[in-house]
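[Q] Does anyone have a clean structure-token version of this?
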Amino acid sequence: MCNFALMLELLLVTQKDSGITQMLIWVVGAILLLLLTLLLFWQRKQGRELVSELEQLDKVKKHNIEFEFVLKAMKLSTWYIDAEARTLTFNNDFRDRTDSYVPEPETPLEEIFKKVASRDRERFAKAVEDLCSGRIEYLHEIFQVKSPHTKKNYWSETYATVAARNTEGLPKSIVGTSTRVDERKAMEVALVEARNKAEESDRLKSAFIANMSHEIRTPLNAIIGFTCVLPDVQSDEERKGLIDLIQENNQKLLQIIDDVMNISKIESGKEKLVMSTFELNDVLRNVVDTYMPQVKGGVNISTMFAQGMLNVTTDLGRLMEILNHLMSNAVKFTSEGNIILGYDAPADKRIRIWVRDTGKGIGPEHLERVFERFFKVDEYIPGAGLGLSICRTMAYSMGGDVGVESKLGEGSKFWLEIPV
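[A] Here you go.
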């Protein structure tokens, strides 16, 4: 500005005698002044635009930070598909598992499909093909993916949509997100199992009530009926016979109630194991002596021990309960032949005690069902069908198991295996 003023002053001094020149100088000065003014306004406009661009840049930067924070919080991975080249590329991966599948950039879709579990592959591939061809606008799939690290499958949930189209209106670019949903699927499975268990529990409760009402009513009717008849009986022999029948049904009724109470106590966890050490051979001999008077004529009952003496440590009360049920069944279903109570030599700190008989035997279709509650192979044989179920429940509580080996018409071998 100083140089311009100096030049103007020199021109005015040297050309002060020329009116035309003086006018020309003023015109030029006005034009220059106008240009300077316009330049000043342009610079101010450029400055405002620069400030606006900087503000927009800050907003974009803030938006990216927020976007990345959302991805991290939701544990998402983002990717895009080039629909024309049929390739997939990951942009970000914030999933919290290290065994997730992350393909190389521009991986062909066919390679992606191969990583999907076989049960979901066809469905997922069809959905992606429909999206790439424009037949659908939006994709939502839940499927299993093979982990490249653990070689196991994990659950993935994917959303995708069309981001850009070509001049023909067909998808050009597709964007999508994926996340791990293993915990959610595990929770769904647990909820289904809980629902099924609740439904089964309700069914079993209804069946239990129905069976118990029948089983209790049978001996109870006999007790009441024979008791009512008893005063009218004159013969001592008939009276004794009725009294014996009443006592027999009393015992049946008490046994049913005891069985129910035993199951209830064990399953509720209120009855703890009472451990003691005892000589097994003596215990088994006492069991045989108890059932000796109950066997039918022509049936021989005996023992078979793998060792001359064996001390074991377990819950004697529960062991006796199981043995009594097994021996009672053997006596009930064996009309001729032998009943043998014995055990095999201990192995791996476990021992197998068994009861072998030459009774009716059990068909293969019933070998597992006999341990179900209220199941009876022969409905005409007295009993509530709870004995073997109690045996299995007690065996489980002792850390063991029970089972059976049998052929129809050839007898049975029920066994109990427990840690000692």
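[Q] Thanks! Anything notable?
[A] The chain has a mean pLDDT of 82.
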